[in-house]
Amino acid sequence: MVLGLQQQDYLRLPMSQTTNSYPSNYTPQSAATEIGRLQLIIQSALAGLRTAMPVQVIAVSNSGGLAPIGTVTVQPMISAMDGSKNLWKHAPVYNVPYMRIQGGANGIILDPVVGDIGIATVCDRDISAVKNTSKVSAPASLRKNDLSDMVYLMTIIGQAPTQYIQFNSAGLTIHSPTKVIINSPNVEIDASSACTINAPSIVLNGTVTATGDVTANGTSVHTHKHGGVTTGGGQTGVPV
Q: Which of 8, 120, 138, 214 is the most buried (most CB within 10 A)?
């Protein structure tokens, strides 16, 4: 038995390490005493517990479109190490579900992208049956704390965003370098003091109804008069 290495770690070793040598988490000196051997047993058991680790996204099933939650392929970023300090890179982990903020049919679509560095957690039992059926299921195998049962949570290392929703003491900012679309059968904006639209051009497609006064260049459309009237001269009366 190779102490300290989980089965999935051993299976992912390079061929040279699985055929020509047997990596372990101990040295002859550490196993020379009864206390040392007991510590090795405890350390080996603890080493088999997977909790969370940083990973990098190398493939994504979704690309920001309207679709159910997808999966990612990730590369664990912490290399495995044996007792002699030899390192090797883990193989990629495939078919990893990722977390989305969603409740029922309400959700925020923010899919991971290739290159994201995030945190992933490892479930303590085989979750493949749950992923396939979305129902309460028995573990599909006896594996425990295996990288195959990983779930990608969120990005933890990244550059400043160029498209964002920002919350701070100044208020709420929605920024996009391309376009913002609000799509709904009914849209209502309630402003208790003022509503300002700054744009070089404004297009309104449809009937416009104003219940209050409308002012253009300082002139009210309710009280303005038209000059230069050809019939009879003078000005028109106040609009009805």
A: 120
For the chain, how big is the Rg over CA atoms in Å?
32
As averages over each run of 10 residues, the pLDDT of the chain (240 residues) reads 44 44 63 79 76 95 93 94 81 95 93 96 93 92 91 94 94 96 94 93 90 79 68 60
Q: CATH code at 103?
A: 2.40.50.230
235/226 Cα distance (integer angstroms): 5
The 3-state DSSP class for residue 186 equals coil
What is the CB-side half-sphere exposure of residue 71 using CA atoms within 13 A? 12
Tell me how long the chain is.
Answer: 240
Q: Is residue 169 part of a domain?
A: no
Number of domains, the chain? 1
Torsion of CA 65, 69, 75, 76, to 10 degrees: 140
Question: What pLDDT score does 196 carry?
Answer: 93
Residue 171 lies in a domain: no
pTM: 0.72
Q: Which domain holds residue 80?
A: 7-157
Residue 180 lies in a domain: no
| Longest CA–CA separation in the chain, Å | 118
H/E stretch holding 96: strand 93-97
> Which residues make Cβ contacts (< 8 Å) with residue 4, sequence separation at least 6?
24, 25, 26, 40, 43, 44, 47, 82, 83
Q: Is the residue at 129 inside a domain?
A: yes
